[in-house]
Amino acid sequence: MESRAMVLEEGKERTTNQVKGLPITLLRVLILFVTICAVFSVISIYTLKHFGIESVVTTSVMKSSFQPCRGEQDRLLDLEDWIRPNSNPIHNMSDKELFWRASFGPRIKDYPFKRVPKVAFMFLTKGPLPLAPLWERFFKGNERLYSIYVHSLPSFQPQFSRSSVFYNRQIPSKVAEWGRMSMCDAERRLLANALLDIYNERFILLSESCIPLYNFSFVYNYIMESKHSFMSVFDDPGPYGRGRYRNEMAPLVNITQWRKGSQWFEVNRKIATSIVEDTRYYPIFEKYCRPACYVDEHYFPTMLSIEAGNALANRSLTWVDWSRGGAHPASFGKSDIREEFIVRIRSRHHCKYNERNSTVCVLFARKFSPSSLKPLLDMDSRVLGF
Asked: Is beta strand 118-124 parallel, antiparallel or unpaired with respect to 200-207?
């Protein structure tokens, strides 16, 4: 018994000595760990108390799910993004999509930005623009006041240099056949593409054989100051007018409303939009006005005389010579280009301009062949004004 007690005392003494012998370094580590935990707990409580757990979670969710518009990381959309003209008219919209998009328009006419109205020059051509150098000279120095659109055969590949005003002005095109609805489709396609630019206010349809008869400033002011749009509209009682009418077009279009006119027009933005958005008259003209009814001579003149007759000047701004007869107007080449010839074209007319008598009735002329280019460029600049 006594010996057993001695053994226990010895064991107890050894254990006590082991505890007393724990390394002082381990104790320091334990104290440091406890201190760090305490500090972390205090910081956490302070953060939750002052910022709230909801804001922390919300911020995390927003950072992970928010995707900036159009892939831009540094700004939101502003007005400039909606009104900036596209420098390249190429797009992949179908005609249906294009016409729908082009029908958009501001209802408030007081623009919230400085809008300098432009004239859209729309060239309807099969391929090259042989008179382009003359037009280059005409446009020079007026870059902020015009825009250009070219509709050609889809297979045509233009070769304009980067410095040309016609560079990258080709719109997505389709084949247009003379006298058929595809020709009107091409004209509507030009209008629709031009309407996408909110700065375009007036729209002129031209061919590759057209030339300007005055300088740009004169043309721009004449068009912008006009109260009317310019489209030739008249009632032709003969076989090439009313003789092309089909009774099936009534009651939407009666024979007394049937009109004929020139294909080459100049219209304001409101009229251009009404042409592009039309779904009322288009189907019956497409169905019933086919050769020998030439739809490009009747569709727009008839529709607009019914819907917007008071807005039209009932004349074209493009001079054409039909005096020689036949299905096509006279053409002019190198031998025809004289100063007196240009003066005669400009001065032989009388018309109304803003309800006043005027002798300035045409601003453009056609049909000029490629051979006319050099004598036109060599002509005294005082004749054409450029």
From this structure: parallel
pLDDT at 40 over 70: no
Strands 146-151 and 118-124: parallel
Once rounded to an integer, what is the mean pLDDT over residues 219-224? 98
- Burial of 218 from C-beta contacts in 10 A (0-12 / 13-18 / 19+): middle
Can you give the pLDDT at residue 84?
85
d(C-alpha 157, C-alpha 67), whole Å: 40
On whether the CB atoms of residues 55 and 135 are closer than 8 A, the answer is no
**Beta carbons within 10 angstroms of residue 348's beta carbon:** 11
Q: Where are the beta strands (DSSP E) in the chain?
A: 118-124, 146-151, 200-207, 211-212, 266-268, 318-319, 351-353, 356-358, 364-365
CA atoms within 13 A on the CB side of 302: 28
- Closest by CA position to 214, among listed 361, 356, 331, 316: 361
Taking the complete model, does pTM exceed 0.85, yes or no? no
> 287-310 burial string, b = 16+ CB within 10 Å, else e?
ebbeeebbbbbbbbbbbbbbebee
Question: In the 8-state DSSP scheme, what is residue 326?
Answer: S
Question: Under a CB-based contact definition with an 8 Å cutoff, are residues 148 and 165 in contact?
Answer: yes
